[in-house]
Protein backbone atom coordinates (compact mmCIF):
# COMPACT_ATOMS: atom_id res chain seq x y z
CA UNK A 1 0.00 0.00 0.00
CA UNK A 2 1.35 3.45 -0.90
CA UNK A 3 2.69 5.41 2.04
CA UNK A 4 0.88 8.71 2.44
CA UNK A 5 2.46 12.10 3.04
CA UNK A 6 2.68 13.33 6.62
CA UNK A 7 0.33 16.16 5.60
CA UNK A 8 -2.30 13.54 4.78
CA UNK A 9 -1.70 11.83 8.11
CA UNK A 10 -2.27 15.13 9.91
CA UNK A 11 -5.74 15.27 8.40
CA UNK A 12 -6.63 11.67 9.24
CA UNK A 13 -4.64 10.58 12.30
CA UNK A 14 -5.99 10.35 15.83
CA UNK A 15 -9.63 9.69 15.00
CA UNK A 16 -11.72 7.49 17.26
CA UNK A 17 -13.21 4.15 16.28
CA UNK A 18 -16.56 4.20 14.53
CA UNK A 19 -19.80 3.90 16.47
CA UNK A 20 -23.31 3.04 15.36
CA UNK A 21 -24.81 5.90 13.38
CA UNK A 22 -21.53 7.32 12.10
CA UNK A 23 -18.70 9.18 13.78
CA UNK A 24 -17.51 12.75 14.27
CA UNK A 25 -14.59 14.09 12.25
CA UNK A 26 -12.81 15.05 15.48
CA UNK A 27 -12.85 12.92 18.64
CA UNK A 28 -15.40 14.13 21.21
CA UNK A 29 -14.28 15.75 24.44
CA UNK A 30 -14.54 13.14 27.19
CA UNK A 31 -14.45 14.72 30.65
CA UNK A 32 -14.10 12.11 33.35
CA UNK A 33 -12.42 11.39 36.64
CA UNK A 34 -14.37 8.29 37.70
CA UNK A 35 -14.70 5.45 35.19
CA UNK A 36 -17.37 2.77 35.72
CA UNK A 37 -16.97 -0.95 35.02
CA UNK A 38 -19.53 -3.67 34.39
CA UNK A 39 -18.19 -5.89 37.14
CA UNK A 40 -15.58 -6.20 39.86
CA UNK A 41 -13.78 -8.71 37.69
CA UNK A 42 -13.56 -6.26 34.79
CA UNK A 43 -12.27 -3.52 37.07
CA UNK A 44 -9.67 -5.88 38.51
CA UNK A 45 -8.58 -7.00 35.04
CA UNK A 46 -8.28 -3.44 33.69
CA UNK A 47 -6.22 -2.29 36.65
CA UNK A 48 -3.91 -5.29 36.29
CA UNK A 49 -3.28 -4.49 32.62
CA UNK A 50 -2.94 -0.71 32.74
CA UNK A 51 0.73 -0.77 33.72
CA UNK A 52 1.63 -2.01 30.24
CA UNK A 53 -1.43 -1.05 28.19
CA UNK A 54 -3.21 2.23 27.60
CA UNK A 55 -6.69 1.76 29.08
CA UNK A 56 -9.45 4.10 30.17
CA UNK A 57 -9.53 3.28 33.88
CA UNK A 58 -9.27 6.60 35.75
CA UNK A 59 -8.95 10.26 34.86
CA UNK A 60 -5.36 10.53 36.08
CA UNK A 61 -4.41 7.78 33.63
CA UNK A 62 -5.73 9.72 30.66
CA UNK A 63 -8.95 9.85 28.70
CA UNK A 64 -10.10 9.01 25.16
CA UNK A 65 -9.64 12.61 23.95
CA UNK A 66 -6.06 12.67 25.21
CA UNK A 67 -5.42 9.18 23.81
CA UNK A 68 -6.44 10.42 20.35
CA UNK A 69 -3.93 13.27 20.60
CA UNK A 70 -1.22 10.90 21.83
CA UNK A 71 -1.77 8.73 18.77
CA UNK A 72 -1.56 11.73 16.48
CA UNK A 73 1.71 12.95 18.02
CA UNK A 74 3.18 9.44 17.91
CA UNK A 75 2.42 9.22 14.20
CA UNK A 76 3.87 12.67 13.59
CA UNK A 77 7.06 11.94 15.54
CA UNK A 78 7.48 8.37 14.25
CA UNK A 79 7.82 6.89 17.73
CA UNK A 80 6.42 4.09 19.86
CA UNK A 81 4.12 5.93 22.26
CA UNK A 82 3.48 9.46 23.54
CA UNK A 83 2.63 10.95 26.93
CA UNK A 84 1.03 14.37 27.43
CA UNK A 85 2.06 16.90 30.08
CA UNK A 86 0.57 20.21 31.30
CA UNK A 87 3.32 22.32 29.66
CA UNK A 88 6.47 22.07 27.59
CA UNK A 89 8.61 22.67 30.67
CA UNK A 90 6.77 19.88 32.51
CA UNK A 91 7.56 17.57 29.59
CA UNK A 92 11.26 18.50 29.80
CA UNK A 93 11.32 18.12 33.60
CA UNK A 94 9.66 14.70 33.52
CA UNK A 95 12.09 13.59 30.82
CA UNK A 96 15.08 14.52 32.97
CA UNK A 97 13.61 12.88 36.06
CA UNK A 98 12.61 9.70 34.23
CA UNK A 99 16.08 8.91 32.95
CA UNK A 100 18.43 10.32 35.60
CA UNK A 101 19.26 9.25 39.16
CA UNK A 102 21.38 10.81 41.94
CA UNK A 103 25.07 10.39 41.18
CA UNK A 104 24.53 10.50 37.43
CA UNK A 105 25.35 13.24 34.92
CA UNK A 106 23.46 14.97 32.12
CA UNK A 107 24.87 17.04 29.26
CA UNK A 108 22.78 20.01 28.17
CA UNK A 109 23.48 22.22 25.13
CA UNK A 110 24.47 25.83 25.69
CA UNK A 111 21.42 26.81 23.63
CA UNK A 112 18.93 24.95 25.84
CA UNK A 113 15.60 26.58 26.71
CA UNK A 114 16.53 28.79 29.66
CA UNK A 115 13.99 27.36 32.19
CA UNK A 116 15.53 23.91 31.59
CA UNK A 117 18.94 25.38 32.38
CA UNK A 118 17.56 26.77 35.65
CA UNK A 119 15.89 23.45 36.48
CA UNK A 120 19.18 21.62 36.05
CA UNK A 121 21.25 24.12 38.01
CA UNK A 122 18.66 24.21 40.79
CA UNK A 123 16.47 21.14 41.32
CA UNK A 124 18.73 18.54 39.70
CA UNK A 125 21.81 19.80 41.52
CA UNK A 126 19.96 19.75 44.84
CA UNK A 127 19.14 16.08 44.25
CA UNK A 128 22.63 14.94 43.35
CA UNK A 129 22.35 14.98 39.56
CA UNK A 130 25.26 16.80 37.92
CA UNK A 131 24.93 18.94 34.79
CA UNK A 132 27.48 20.17 32.28
CA UNK A 133 26.89 22.34 29.23
CA UNK A 134 28.37 21.79 25.79
CA UNK A 135 28.58 24.11 22.78
CA UNK A 136 25.35 24.54 20.83
CA UNK A 137 26.81 22.95 17.70
CA UNK A 138 28.10 19.97 19.70
CA UNK A 139 31.74 20.25 18.65
CA UNK A 140 33.03 19.75 22.22
CA UNK A 141 30.58 17.06 23.31
CA UNK A 142 33.01 14.15 23.21
CA UNK A 143 35.38 15.87 25.64
CA UNK A 144 32.57 16.58 28.12
CA UNK A 145 31.25 13.03 28.44
CA UNK A 146 31.88 11.48 31.85
CA UNK A 147 31.73 7.85 32.98
CA UNK A 148 28.51 8.70 34.84
CA UNK A 149 26.86 10.51 31.89
CA UNK A 150 23.49 8.85 31.30
CA UNK A 151 21.63 11.43 29.21
CA UNK A 152 22.61 13.80 26.42
CA UNK A 153 19.98 16.47 25.83
CA UNK A 154 19.82 18.15 22.43
CA UNK A 155 18.02 21.24 21.17
CA UNK A 156 18.36 21.83 17.47
CA UNK A 157 18.02 24.39 16.16
CA UNK A 158 18.87 25.95 19.50
CA UNK A 159 16.85 28.57 21.32
CA UNK A 160 17.38 32.22 20.37
CA UNK A 161 20.24 31.89 17.85
CA UNK A 162 19.10 28.67 16.09
CA UNK A 163 22.39 26.82 16.01
CA UNK A 164 22.32 23.38 14.32
CA UNK A 165 24.06 20.29 15.63
CA UNK A 166 24.74 16.93 14.00
CA UNK A 167 22.16 14.82 15.83
CA UNK A 168 23.01 11.47 14.16
CA UNK A 169 26.66 11.90 15.13
CA UNK A 170 25.75 12.94 18.67
CA UNK A 171 23.36 10.00 19.05
CA UNK A 172 26.02 7.56 17.87
CA UNK A 173 28.54 9.03 20.31
CA UNK A 174 26.11 8.98 23.23
CA UNK A 175 24.90 5.43 22.57
CA UNK A 176 28.45 4.09 22.36
CA UNK A 177 28.99 5.72 25.75
CA UNK A 178 25.87 4.07 27.19
CA UNK A 179 23.80 7.27 27.36
CA UNK A 180 20.33 8.03 26.04
CA UNK A 181 19.56 11.03 23.82
CA UNK A 182 16.60 13.35 24.43
CA UNK A 183 15.80 16.06 21.89
CA UNK A 184 13.66 19.16 22.32
CA UNK A 185 11.75 19.18 19.05
CA UNK A 186 9.55 22.22 19.68
CA UNK A 187 11.13 24.13 16.78
CA UNK A 188 10.67 21.21 14.39
CA UNK A 189 7.18 20.29 15.60
CA UNK A 190 7.50 16.78 14.14
CA UNK A 191 6.84 18.10 10.65
CA UNK A 192 10.08 19.99 10.03
CA UNK A 193 12.42 17.79 12.06
CA UNK A 194 12.23 14.19 13.33
CA UNK A 195 14.76 13.47 16.09
CA UNK A 196 13.75 9.83 16.57
CA UNK A 197 14.53 9.06 12.93
CA UNK A 198 17.91 10.78 13.38
CA UNK A 199 18.90 8.62 16.36
CA UNK A 200 17.34 10.18 19.47
CA UNK A 201 15.57 7.98 22.02
CA UNK A 202 13.19 10.64 23.31
CA UNK A 203 11.59 13.59 21.51
CA UNK A 204 9.74 16.26 23.48
CA UNK A 205 7.75 19.27 22.32
CA UNK A 206 5.94 22.24 23.77
CA UNK A 207 2.57 21.68 22.12
CA UNK A 208 1.82 25.17 23.40
CA UNK A 209 3.65 26.41 20.31
CA UNK A 210 3.04 25.24 16.73
CA UNK A 211 0.99 22.12 17.47
CA UNK A 212 -1.69 24.25 19.11
CA UNK A 213 -0.96 27.23 16.89
CA UNK A 214 -3.42 29.66 18.46
CA UNK A 215 -1.73 30.91 21.67
CA UNK A 216 -4.57 29.69 23.88
CA UNK A 217 -3.47 26.39 25.45
CA UNK A 218 -0.52 24.99 27.44
CA UNK A 219 0.74 21.46 26.85
CA UNK A 220 3.86 19.34 26.42
CA UNK A 221 4.40 16.01 24.68
CA UNK A 222 7.06 13.32 25.03
CA UNK A 223 7.34 10.58 22.40
CA UNK A 224 9.89 7.78 22.79
CA UNK A 225 11.24 4.61 21.25
CA UNK A 226 9.87 1.34 22.60
CA UNK A 227 12.99 0.73 24.69
CA UNK A 228 12.83 4.15 26.35
CA UNK A 229 9.08 4.12 27.00
CA UNK A 230 8.71 2.19 30.32
CA UNK A 231 10.72 4.66 32.43
CA UNK A 232 8.73 7.66 31.22
CA UNK A 233 5.36 5.93 31.55
CA UNK A 234 6.10 4.72 35.08
CA UNK A 235 7.12 8.18 36.28
CA UNK A 236 4.13 9.90 34.70
CA UNK A 237 1.78 7.39 36.32
CA UNK A 238 3.51 7.75 39.68
CA UNK A 239 3.12 11.53 39.57
CA UNK A 240 -0.50 11.36 38.39
CA UNK A 241 0.26 13.44 35.31
CA UNK A 242 -2.76 14.11 33.11
CA UNK A 243 -4.05 16.88 30.86
CA UNK A 244 -7.49 18.37 30.36
CA UNK A 245 -9.51 16.74 27.58
CA UNK A 246 -10.53 20.22 26.47
CA UNK A 247 -6.88 21.18 26.02
CA UNK A 248 -6.17 17.91 24.21
CA UNK A 249 -9.05 18.67 21.84
CA UNK A 250 -7.70 22.16 21.12
CA UNK A 251 -4.20 20.90 20.37
CA UNK A 252 -5.43 18.18 18.08
CA UNK A 253 -7.67 20.63 16.23
CA UNK A 254 -4.66 22.93 15.82
CA UNK A 255 -2.54 20.10 14.45
CA UNK A 256 -4.92 19.56 11.55
CA UNK A 257 -3.70 22.84 10.01
CA UNK A 258 -0.05 22.50 11.08
CA UNK A 259 1.27 21.98 7.55
CA UNK A 260 -0.58 24.94 6.07
CA UNK A 261 0.37 27.24 8.93
CA UNK A 262 4.05 26.31 8.91
CA UNK A 263 4.20 26.87 5.16
CA UNK A 264 2.96 30.44 5.58
CA UNK A 265 5.19 31.05 8.62
CA UNK A 266 8.15 29.87 6.53
CA UNK A 267 7.38 32.18 3.61
CA UNK A 268 7.10 35.17 5.90
CA UNK A 269 10.19 34.37 7.95
CA UNK A 270 12.40 33.81 4.91
CA UNK A 271 11.23 37.07 3.35
CA UNK A 272 11.98 38.95 6.58
CA UNK A 273 15.33 37.20 7.06
CA UNK A 274 16.56 38.04 3.55
CA UNK A 275 15.32 41.62 3.95
CA UNK A 276 17.08 42.02 7.30
CA UNK A 277 20.35 40.99 5.68
CA UNK A 278 20.08 44.06 3.45
CA UNK A 279 19.61 46.49 6.34
CA UNK A 280 22.66 48.50 7.45
CA UNK A 281 21.36 48.53 11.03
CA UNK A 282 21.64 44.72 11.28
CA UNK A 283 24.91 43.06 12.19
CA UNK A 284 23.87 39.41 11.87
CA UNK A 285 20.75 37.36 11.11
CA UNK A 286 20.31 34.02 12.86
CA UNK A 287 18.33 31.56 10.72
CA UNK A 288 19.73 28.19 9.59
CA UNK A 289 17.57 28.24 6.46
CA UNK A 290 19.65 31.15 5.12
CA UNK A 291 22.59 30.27 2.85
CA UNK A 292 25.79 31.21 4.62
CA UNK A 293 24.44 30.44 8.09
CA UNK A 294 26.91 28.19 9.97
CA UNK A 295 24.25 25.49 10.31
CA UNK A 296 22.82 25.72 6.81
CA UNK A 297 24.32 22.46 5.51
CA UNK A 298 22.94 20.48 8.45
CA UNK A 299 19.58 22.23 8.08
CA UNK A 300 19.42 21.20 4.43
CA UNK A 301 20.33 17.62 5.32
CA UNK A 302 18.07 17.09 8.33
CA UNK A 303 15.15 19.54 8.17
CA UNK A 304 12.07 19.64 5.95
CA UNK A 305 11.72 23.43 6.05
CA UNK A 306 11.75 26.25 8.56
CA UNK A 307 9.18 28.05 10.71
CA UNK A 308 8.46 31.64 11.73
CA UNK A 309 11.42 32.09 14.08
CA UNK A 310 14.54 34.14 13.45
CA UNK A 311 16.75 36.51 15.40
CA UNK A 312 19.07 39.35 14.49
CA UNK A 313 21.65 41.50 16.21
CA UNK A 314 21.87 45.29 16.02
CA UNK A 315 24.93 47.31 15.13
CA UNK A 316 23.66 50.04 17.44
CA UNK A 317 25.53 49.59 20.70
CA UNK A 318 23.24 51.81 22.79
CA UNK A 319 22.07 49.87 25.86
CA UNK A 320 18.41 50.53 25.15
CA UNK A 321 18.49 50.30 21.33
CA UNK A 322 16.77 46.90 21.12
CA UNK A 323 14.11 47.92 23.60
CA UNK A 324 13.39 51.16 21.75
CA UNK A 325 13.21 49.37 18.40
CA UNK A 326 10.73 46.77 19.67
CA UNK A 327 8.54 49.37 21.33
CA UNK A 328 8.29 51.31 18.05
CA UNK A 329 6.62 48.39 16.28
CA UNK A 330 2.87 48.26 15.79
CA UNK A 331 2.23 44.78 14.37
CA UNK A 332 4.62 42.82 16.58
CA UNK A 333 3.39 41.97 20.05
CA UNK A 334 5.74 41.91 23.04
CA UNK A 335 5.24 38.62 24.82
CA UNK A 336 6.69 35.24 25.69
CA UNK A 337 6.20 32.08 23.64
CA UNK A 338 5.71 31.79 19.88
CA UNK A 339 4.08 29.45 17.40
CA UNK A 340 0.72 31.20 17.27
CA UNK A 341 -0.79 33.18 14.40
CA UNK A 342 0.59 36.49 15.70
CA UNK A 343 3.97 38.13 15.14
CA UNK A 344 6.12 38.77 18.22
CA UNK A 345 9.34 40.61 19.06
CA UNK A 346 11.37 40.23 22.25
CA UNK A 347 14.90 40.92 23.45
CA UNK A 348 17.07 37.81 23.65
CA UNK A 349 19.50 38.21 26.52
CA UNK A 350 22.28 36.04 25.11
CA UNK A 351 24.73 36.79 27.91
CA UNK A 352 22.35 35.25 30.45
CA UNK A 353 21.26 32.43 28.14
CA UNK A 354 24.74 31.15 27.27
CA UNK A 355 27.60 29.94 29.46
CA UNK A 356 29.87 28.15 26.97
CA UNK A 357 29.79 30.71 24.15
CA UNK A 358 30.98 34.26 24.89
CA UNK A 359 28.48 36.83 23.57
CA UNK A 360 30.01 39.85 25.33
CA UNK A 361 31.44 41.37 22.14
CA UNK A 362 28.30 40.93 20.03
CA UNK A 363 25.39 43.28 19.62
CA UNK A 364 21.96 43.10 21.20
CA UNK A 365 19.80 40.29 19.82
CA UNK A 366 16.13 40.63 18.94
CA UNK A 367 14.03 37.52 18.44
CA UNK A 368 11.15 37.69 15.97
CA UNK A 369 8.30 35.29 15.44
CA UNK A 370 6.77 35.92 12.03
CA UNK A 371 3.06 35.24 12.24
CA UNK A 372 0.37 34.97 9.59
CA UNK A 373 0.03 38.66 8.80
CA UNK A 374 0.74 39.93 5.27
CA UNK A 375 4.49 39.98 4.63
CA UNK A 376 4.50 43.48 3.12
CA UNK A 377 2.79 44.87 6.22
CA UNK A 378 5.36 43.27 8.50
CA UNK A 379 8.29 44.54 6.43
CA UNK A 380 6.82 48.05 6.46
CA UNK A 381 6.44 47.88 10.24
CA UNK A 382 10.04 46.77 10.69
CA UNK A 383 11.25 49.49 8.30
CA UNK A 384 9.51 52.22 10.27
CA UNK A 385 11.01 50.71 13.42
CA UNK A 386 14.52 51.19 12.03
CA UNK A 387 13.59 54.67 10.84
CA UNK A 388 12.26 55.62 14.25
CA UNK A 389 15.39 54.29 15.93
CA UNK A 390 17.61 56.30 13.58
CA UNK A 391 15.57 59.47 14.14
CA UNK A 392 15.74 59.02 17.89
CA UNK A 393 19.51 58.58 17.71
CA UNK A 394 19.94 61.74 15.66
CA UNK A 395 17.70 63.99 17.76
CA UNK A 396 18.38 62.56 21.19
CA UNK A 397 14.65 62.87 21.94
CA UNK A 398 12.53 60.15 23.53
CA UNK A 399 11.23 57.72 20.95
CA UNK A 400 7.72 58.53 19.68
CA UNK A 401 6.28 55.09 19.02
CA UNK A 402 4.53 54.30 15.79
CA UNK A 403 2.17 52.19 17.88
CA UNK A 404 0.73 55.39 19.36
CA UNK A 405 -0.97 56.17 16.04
CA UNK A 406 -2.16 52.67 15.14
CA UNK A 407 -4.42 50.10 16.80
CA UNK A 408 -2.69 47.71 19.18
CA UNK A 409 -3.05 44.68 16.93
CA UNK A 410 -0.82 42.16 18.67
CA UNK A 411 -0.89 42.68 22.38
CA UNK A 412 0.72 46.10 22.80
Mean pLDDT rating: 91
Which architecture of the largest domain would the CATH scheme give at its second level? 3-Layer(aba) Sandwich
Q: What is the helix content?
A: 25-40%
Q: What order do the SSEs take from the amino end to the carboxyl end, as H and E? A: HHHEHEHEHEHEEEHHHEHEHEHEH
Strand order of the largest sheet: 1-7-6-5-4-2-3
In CATH terms, the superfamily of the largest domain is: Type I PLP-dependent aspartate aminotransferase-like (Major domain)
**Relative strand content:** 5-15%
Task: Walk me through this protein's architecture.
- The protein has 412 residues and is of the alpha/beta class.
- It folds into two domains: 219 residues, Aspartate Aminotransferase, domain 2 (3-Layer(aba) Sandwich), CATH 3.40.640; 148 residues, Alpha-Beta Complex (Aspartate Aminotransferase, domain 1).
- It is built from 14 helices and eleven strands.
- Strands 1-7-6-5-4-2-3 form a seven-stranded mixed beta sheet, sandwiched between helices. The protein has a four-stranded antiparallel beta sheet with strand order 8-9-11-10, with helices on one face.
- Helix 12 crosses helix 14.
- The chain starts with 5 loop residues before the first helix and ends in a 17-residue tail after the last helix.
